[in-house]
Request: fold
Amino acid sequence: LPILNSLGISFAETGDWETACSYLEDALDLRRQIGDRSREAVTLSSLGRVHTRLAKFDQAITYFENAIAIQNDIGDMLSAADTLSSMGNLYRQLHRWDAGERYLKEAIQVHKQIGDKAGEAEALNNLGLIYRALKQNETAFAYYQEALELHEIVGNKSGKASTLNNIGVLHRVKQEYDLALQIYEQVLQLRRELKDRSGEAITLNNMGRIFRLTNQVNLAMEYYQNSLSLLRQVGDKSNEASILSNIAMLHIEAGNWNDAQAFLSEAVEIDRSFGLPTLEEDLQALEWVKRQGTM
Reply:
């Protein structure tokens, strides 16, 4: 029984979400059969995180809500804080900023109460993402810095990579492209060491954006295509749609309307299938490209 759950977590850590889901569902069935409520809740929360990465958000919310109900009932504060943090991150991905902020701040409070620096750092990092999305970049940077310090203290390489990546994004927004690329190189090395293929793909995408912004079109396309290949291997649909849109942007800038339309159509199909918040934006871009192609 512990082996099934451990295998699920192991596959999740390498970005193989579909395989992770299969093992975790088997573990959940067995834990329910033997009445192990504590570990049932842990597996439910893990399934919530996997379904979030698979862009199956309604199912993820159900798993998280079932997990937090058990964790609160049995007084498992550490696991409850982790689940609250994951719920906050899910609502962040859905662009429901108020809900995301509320869950993450609640998670941070609980993590501090029980002295869980690793969990606190993860929640701080995700809270920074919300403030970046709201264009409150200085506030975002302060949360990232706090998270990075905690990641260093506990030796969390994965968390460090995630937070450094987000700091790199802030430098990109400030048009400090050389500094952003230096940070992304650090992140890429860490994620390859960790065999985190989904994280590696996200970093390649971010580097591709820098190359596009600095008019290094061939490099941008190379990094985007490598990112897309990795995301398709691990089934990360949410980020796949984002990469497809980025590739379409390169074709738009080159006036390749048919290619741009093809990539945007794929992005819209994923957006619609998984209820992604980027649907409207990608639809508008697709309609604009169609009009340009007929002019």
About this structure: The two ends are 62 Å apart (CA to CA). Residues 195 and 267 are 26 Å apart (CA to CA). The chain has a mean pLDDT of 91.
